[in-house]
Design goal:
The chain has a single domain, classed as SGNH hydrolase (Rossmann fold, 3-Layer(aba) Sandwich). It is 42% helix and 9% strand. The chain has nine helices and five strands; from the N terminus they run H-E-H-H-E-H-E-H-H-E-H-E-H-H. The chain has helices spanning 2-21, 69-72, 94-105, 127-137, 148-152, 161-181, 207-221, 228-231, 246-264; strands at residues 62-67, 112-117, 141-145, 186-189, 224-226. Helix 4 runs parallel beside helix 6 (161-181). It is elongated, with a radius of gyration of 42 Å.
Length: 266
C-alpha cells in the first residue's frame, strides 16, 4: 500500500511539470524559427511596345519628268503623240519605276509622276514643248534629262564640239529659266555614260565636257544637279551604247528618288 501511494505521487508530480512547460512530448524544437515561404509577386502585363514611326512624307506631290527617249523609256520611235503622259509611262522607263518606288515609300500620300519624255527630241528644239508642258501640268518639281540627241547628231560643216555643247546647254538653261519664272524648281541630270563603239554612242569621247558644262550652268541658275553619270556603270548601258538597260532604268529611278528624298522628305 505504501509503495502504491509513492507511485501515484510520482505520477502527479510528472503531470504537474508537464502542465507547466507544455504537454509532455510536444515541446517546441530548440533553435531559430524558420522564415515563412516567400510570397510570389502578382503577375504583370508585358510592356506596351512603342508606337510605330509614321511613314515619311514629301513636301511635294506632283513631279514632271521631261526629256527624250531616256525619259520616255524606249529605244525605238515615239509611242505617243501626246505632249506628256498623264501617267508615269512605259513600265521600263525611269519615271514609271520612280512612281513605284515613291508609292511604296510615301504610303500616306499620293505622289504623281508624269512622263514627258519624247524619243528622238533634241533640247535645242524642245524649248517650246517644255514651256507648254509645264504650263499644262503645273508640277511642283521638274526632273530634266536631255541633250543626248543633240550631242549625237551629225555635225554641220565647220561646227565644233564646243559650239555643239554650248548650244545644247543654252537650251537647257532656257528651260530652267522658264520653270523659274513660274516658281517651279528643276533637278537636272548629267547624261549617263555612253559605251564607246556603240552605234548610238557618238558623244562618248566628249560626254564629260558636256556634263561639266551642265553642272556649271545649273550652279548659276540655282538648279539642283543629279549626277546620274557618276552613279551609273557601263554595265547598265545597253548594246546601242546610249540607252540604259531596264536594270539601268531601275537604278536611275533610285538615283532620282535619293535626290528627291534629300531635298523634300520630311
Amino acid at each position: 500500500m505504501r509503495k502504491r501511494l509513492q507511485s501515484v505521487a510520482r505520477t502527479c508530480i510528472l503531470l504537474a511539470v508537464c502542465g507547466t512547460v507544455g504537454a509532455c512530448g510536444d515541446s517546441p524544437p530548440i533553435g531559430p524559427t524558420p522564415n515563412p515561404p516567400p510570397t510570389q509577386p502578382p503577375a504583370q502585363d508585358p510592356p506596351t511596345p512603342p508606337p510605330a514611326a509614321p511613314p515619311p512624307t514629301l513636301g511635294i506631290t506632283k513631279i514632271l519628268a521631261f526629256g527624250d527617249s531616256m525619259t520616255e523609256g524606249t529605244t525605238s520611235a515615239p509611242v505617243t503623240a501626246l505632249l506628256f503622259r498623264l501617267d508615269a509611262g512605259l513600265t521600263r522607263s525611269y519615271p514609271f519605276k520612280l512612281q513605284t518606288l515613291s508609292t511604296g515609300r510615301y504610303t500616306n500620300q499620293t505622289i504623281q509622276i508624269w512622263n514627258a519624255g519624247r524619243a528622238g527630241n533634241e533640247a535645242v528644239n524642245d524649248r517650246g514643248r517644255f514651256s507648254t508642258v509645264i504650263g499644262d501640268a503645273k508640277p511642283e518639281l521638274v526632273l530634266l534629262l536631255e541633250g543626248a540627241n543633240d550631242l549625237n547628231a551629225p555635225f554641220a560643216a565647220g561646227e565644233g564640239i564646243n559650239a555643239r555643247i554650248a548650244a545644247t546647254v543654252s537650251a537647257l538653261e532656257d528651260m530652267i529659266r522658264d520653270a523659274g519664272f513660274r516658281g517651279i524648281p528643276v533637278m537636272i541630270a548629267t547624261l549617263p555614260p555612253q559605251r564607246p563603239g556603240g552605234p548610238k554612242a557618238g558623244a562618248a569621247t566628249f560626254l564629260s565636257r558636256f556634263n561639266d558644262a551642265v553642272k556649271t550652268m545649273a550652279g548659276r541658275k540655282g538648279a539642283a544637279v543629279v549626277d546620274v553619270n557618276a552613279q551609273m556603270a557601263l554595265s547598265e548601258i545597253g548594246q546601242d551604247g546610249l540607252h540604259p538597260t531596264e536594270a539601268g532604268y531601275q537604278h536611275m529611278a533610285e538615283i532620282w528618288l535619293a535626290a528627291i528624298k534629300t531635298a523634300y522628305e520630311k
